[in-house]
Design a protein that fits this description.
Blueprint (H helix, E strand, L loop, with lengths): L6 H6 L38 H33 L9 E8 L4 E6 L5 E6 L9 E3 L10 E7 L7 H17 L1 H9 L20 H11 L7 H8 L3 H14 L7 H5 L5
Antiparallel strand pairs: 1-2, 1-4, 2-3, 3-5
Helix pairs in contact: 3-7
Amino acid sequence: MIIVSGFSRDRNIKVPKKTEKKPVVAPSSYIPSRPAEGRATIPKKVAKPNQPQQKRRQANRNNQNRSGGRRNNTQRQKQQRARRPTPLDDEIWARVVENDTQSNVIVALGETKMMLGRYTSKSSEISVGQQIYVGVDAAKRTAVGEILGMARLDRLSNVARADLPLVTQVFIEENQQHFIKSFFNIAGPLSLKQHAFELLPGVGKKKALQMVEIRGSSGFSSFSQLNEACAIDAADLLAKRFVAEIEDKNLQPRLSELLLPVSA
């Protein structure tokens, strides 16, 4: 085996030559950039309208629309309120229970259903117990104006609550013939254990039988005869029963519904 070394070996080694870098030629499609043509034109600012002033105008328009809408809604609500029927629409005559000159409100007891109603007052000279017209004919309402609604017994003044039985009694005494014919001369047993006279405060079973015996077949002709013969105050007892029915809507039977309205 012949090993070649030394100069001969070095001479036979091929050393690659360094390649020279060729210059980069730009492609034929290359387009040089456009030379500068001077200072670019700056767009002028357009004057904007005064924003605070414009906002104020828009706010005023919105407020006017809102206020106009509120007025229209209020008018609609009033009209709906005025058209809405109430139980007081059936009342024609009523008795004044209270005339509050400070609030200009009258509380009156209806003679048809024994309902307490609130009305606007047209006069400060209206007295308690006075009969006033509260019907639907506005031309005849000389004492009161529009209906304000039902009056709650627990919101009446102490004076008005004390006067309510007296006002009711005056109404009964002025129509005594109606109540004598409709109740005292025809009252009978409600059941085997209770008589209609026992609905009156303070009248028990024994007193009721005594009143029936005294009444007989001829009946009573007036409150004075009835009171003297039976030793009672008929108008006062019947007024207390009506007031008890006003205070308690569940109290049965209801004499106010059986005996009213007063027949002519």
